[in-house]
Queue: 2 jobs
Job 1
Amino acid sequence: MPEQEQQEKMPSNALAEGAHVIDKTHKEQIQASWYRCEQFGLEHGSRPDFASLPRGELHDLMDQHRSLLETTENEVLPYYENILSNSACMIVLADRQGHVLNTWGQPRFGTASEHGLVGGNQWSEIGVGTNAIGTALITGQAIQVGRDEHYLRANRFMVGSASPIYNTQNDLVGVLDISSDAYLPQDHTFGMVKLMSLSVENRLIFSAFQQEHFILSFNTNVTSLDSHWSGILVLDENGTIVSANRRAEVVLARDLALLNIRQIFDIEMREIKHHPASLPLKLIALGRYQFYVKVIPPVQQIMRVPDFRQGSGYVPPTPKNNKNTIQNKVEDLTFMDMKDANHARHDVPPNVIPLAELQHGDAHVERLVKQAHKIMEKDIPILIHGETGAGKEIFVRSLHYHSSRREEMLVAVNCAAIPAELVESELFGYEKGAFTGAQNKGSIGLIRRAHRGTLFLDEIGEMPMAVQSRLLRVLQERVVTPLGSTEVYPVDIKLISATNRALKAEVKDGRFRQDLYYRISGLNIELPPLRERQDKVKLIAYLHARLSQEEPSPPLSDDMLALLEKHPWPGNMRQLAHTLKVGMAMADGDELEEWHLPDDFFDDLMMSPAEEIEHRDASTAAEPLEQLIPRLLDEHKGNVSQTAKAAGVSRNTVYKYTKMKTTN
């Protein structure tokens, strides 16, 4: 047998001059590949058959793998640009069939017809013999194929190092290859291609999950948390691991699918949610290994209504009648039944006010709560009017939770908070590349996120006219077409809108579409401002009691209730909540007193001279205010609130006499 044929029966032990010794596993991989090539009927002298794709099919293939291509080129290769620019090598990205999608670098291979590493060529073992791309795809593992290890002599001018790429479902989607005819350090090249493929996988994970999921990056060194060698875990809001990169599974040496984060690290999900993103954590994994962990919160925080019934300890109540659907139960529930049920339930989330507790004796509010609760189960939109801070979002959250749609999402959109040029893309979504700055994977849009749930459009009067037109079509046709797309997606939403504007006047002035107004105003309700509430005192006491669950505080005194009731509350419920929170924090567990309240509370609270005289204590009533106030102000070291309390006057009166003294 000729010497060359004897050598070709068994691959050489070395990868060209000065290369490292191949381990047994690698030898077995190459031998198995050569055996497959023999079974395919290939000979060492065969010419490569690249089964080149026509240009049109190649373009279609590139469109199918656009995300993979853009991730590789835009988010991974720039990290290695300096290294690759100093090496005579070519980087090749191929799909799972071995078709070359794109190449980067400056090869010394000669013409494309000689080396075959061009778009559309297929580097499979059956056509090209043992090669880095084709063999990595068959084995599913990274591999380096030396010059003499190629089955076909035609390919023995180069060394190839390839590593497969897996997507978030752990499916093999492609392979990354570095090929060169130069005598590069083989360990270095092989390690780099494995790192690059891992980098692509990491970026695919971020693209798929970063919008709505928490991502944990962990490593043994705090300075390496942002490296591509870090382990990555993707968590839903309950702490369930929904995805992970290969590095995480290798380092932790276990199947991570659907485990809870507390089964891996000594931390609860609630701690992760509130941990600053820029501050690394030092945690123990599996009870023994120490890691540094970086928390990356979701990019897009969508309002989600908690449902504690999903916990393992929840036992559903026994039905009292034969009506099985949630909708029938909700529709048949009278308001008084609902009130009793609200007090008996233990699964109402802390950020949801039970419907019966939205009013405390105000007949008007009680009536509109009944109306809105009934209409929630009908295909009729709701339009809420009310001043800023009147509690529109609290009202909507309660309606959603106490409806048959509570299992799905409540998506709240503040139309005034989104830049005008982005409202359309945020609401309707967009296809990848629809406009400059668009995400590579596109966006589903807020309307489609609310599918089968509730869409709350707050401050709808601020919506641009062009967007109003598109929203009208969505509400009429119940389908959404993302920007840059011709696809239509059906949507089932309960629409609730809110405004602090007089929309009829806006329609008359041409700033709001008349047809859209009548489309969103099925049931019109108006939340009264706090100053007009008939149950104002009880409402203040109720809110204080709820806040006391977080900041323990004794009940409000009659004097404090009278003072709070007298306030005009131009900022409504929002201002009341902030005032109580500040006062309770200052009281620090003691009974809330006037001097605990924030300074700006008194700016809107004016006493008449007669009221101030009546409010003053007998011990100070005889002393003229122009003498009393400077004296008390000096005694209380300039504290205006304590001075006003001691003098029995308003803060404005203190300011008035302070200014008079300064002027004189």
Note: Confidence is low (pLDDT under 50) at residues 1-7, 10-23, 319-346, 435-439.
Job 2
Amino acid sequence: MNVPVDHLDHRVRGGWTPSGAADAALPAHASRWLSARTGLTPVDTPVAPDSGLPVPESVLPAPVRAVLADIVGAEHVLVEREDRLGRSGGLSYVDLLVRRGAGELPVPDAVVLPGDPDQVRAVVEACASHGVGIVPFGGGTSVVGGVSALRGDKVAVVVLDLARLDKLVSVDPVSRLAVFQAGVVAPDAERMLAAHGLTLGHFPQSYERATLGGFAATRSSGQASAGYGRFEDMVEGVRLATPRGDWRLGVSPASAAGPDLRQLAVGSEGLFGVITEVTVRVRPAPAWERYEGFVVDGFAAGAEVVRGLAQAGVLGTVTRLSDPQETEVALTLSGGWKTAAVKGYLRARGIAEPSLLVIGWEGATREEMLTRRRATLRLVDGAVRLGVRAGETWRHGRFSGPRQRDALMDVGMCVETLETATYWSKLGDLREAVREALLRSLTAGGRRPIVACHISHSYETGASLYFTTLVPRDPSDPVGQWRRAKEAASEAIMGLGTITHHHAVGVDHAPYLASEIGPLGVDVLRAIKAELDPSGVLNPGKLV
């Protein structure tokens, strides 16, 4: 089920499911299974009404508000309670817990909606001169605190909502380049490109809400990255508004003119400037697609299959391996796994620990797509084929996870994700270390956690691991329950993999950054920020 999102309203409403849309309600069989499997006693934990959440009065000085109104128009400087609350935080589990009354949100003092890159630059310069913090805001999908309105030592903090920067600036079909304003939401980008027979090919789970500027600022990776690359691979140019002025980067497909400064913008999380335009590499939209499902016996065997595909250069456009725990959860919640027929079918074929492998191929022609499929299947050894139906089931539900989380939270589940990546030789050790840390932290009070994992992105040298945790919520300390588990998992990752493969650093991962890039690396980032943002107004409290 793909629920349309109002792309002109990025406000967070306490969950992923848009206001007025049908919820992804938890089926009765799924609730019974979760109760038996985890010890869940379903409780009603709805999102609190906006009127029930604490919102402090705005402290934005009147002279600053007047300056901002002169730049963008008074109607685009919002200080009403509802508008400020709607841009308070992102969509992490903890963010959404607070929406259920479990704490307080850092609420901005105003929301500013510039209409073009020049207005963004003027707003940034005005805020810098008045000591007002600026939080760039796209789709509000951060799950690591990246859009939290932290004030720090500033007199006030405003959210710079880029929703009005929603244009396709230009298309160069000969060079296969497109220039987008940073506030364009991913589905809109695909619709705009489709009119030219093109696609960006970037489909993370946040696809329905996230913006192209957000993809660039966080080094996003999509479900089809095996075919199209990570977002930083797509970025050919970038335009930023900094307190020091406008900055444009990217003039050719390759250059030896010193370090590639585009990479200072890509992954900078709004600390060095506000991304206002992104030039991206695009490709012809595929005419043929085919998705299939396979089952491999055990995660280790499945990982070996995926490694073989990656190192032979024959991955599908999408190649995704779920471990036995995720396979069980996904197919149980969808209603298709616990049937005797399916279990018997797999047992008869020697599958003791089913791990679901989904592979998708694309092509401009049917023969091109089938040629890629044949190259992949030559190396898919020992797998039981489930066919197109299993693959299409995954494809049609590929963006439903956040809505399922809404439904699970409504009945009292703690449900959250984290991700990492490492080299192939360390992959098994990393998975076990994180699983053990999460299970150890979350097993208490009769609660029996499920820790599920999948390989979401694969490379010649290694792969990412994406974990999902399900456990009944601790009503006495719901925020602390997850934060302790996340800390345990993060400590387990150190020395084995990266603290984040595609969720970015934000607030949550900042304590671990020095362990990954070294104290000298942190000093380098701080020096760059000091040069571009001398007064430190850009996204206070994030990254470094």
Note: The first strand starts at residue 77 and ends at 78.
